[in-house]
Amino acid sequence: MSSENSKPMVTDVFVKGAIQGWGIATHSTIPNVLMAFVIIRVLNVAGLLPILGDIFRPLMGLFGLPGEAAAVLIAGWMSMGGGVGVAAALFDQGSLSVTDCAILAPGIYLMGSQLQYMGRCLGVIGTRGSMIPVLMGVAIINAFIGMFVMNIIV
């Protein structure tokens, strides 16, 4: 059997996957999470996080969350990694509890990275511009339903 027709060795597949995983981590995940920590730090230093919390407290209260949790959803809408990073930063500083993070998780993932996907996917496949707000709205409504249900569960 020639080497062209043989299956790759398990170690070769593993190494290739590890290299791809490293690329994803260093070019996407780590920068997004780092950006999230920086955003929270900037909001804290500028004194804007409490203001953001006050503005969004009524909406976030529907899900049993503090107003600052809106920062997680805003960051998650831009980037899932960013949303997770903001949640971790707010948890680290004591603004979010473990329960709050559990409630936010479906929101991050159901509407996560929409800003990125709008350009990467919807534009590429030729989605009509009038349909983009509908598609985004459905994901956001699903996220809110998911958080509402999670609030009941936890």
UniProtKB/TrEMBL annotation:
UniProt cross-references to InterPro entries, sorted A to Z: Gate_dom, SpmB
Sequence intervals crossing the membrane: 59-80, 86-111, 132-153
Record-annotated Nucleoside transporter/FeoB GTPase Gate domain positions: 29-118
Matching Pfam families: Gate
Keywords assigned: Membrane, Transmembrane, Transmembrane helix
Name listed for the protein in its UniProt record: Nucleoside transporter/FeoB GTPase Gate domain-containing protein
Protein source organism: Parasutterella secunda
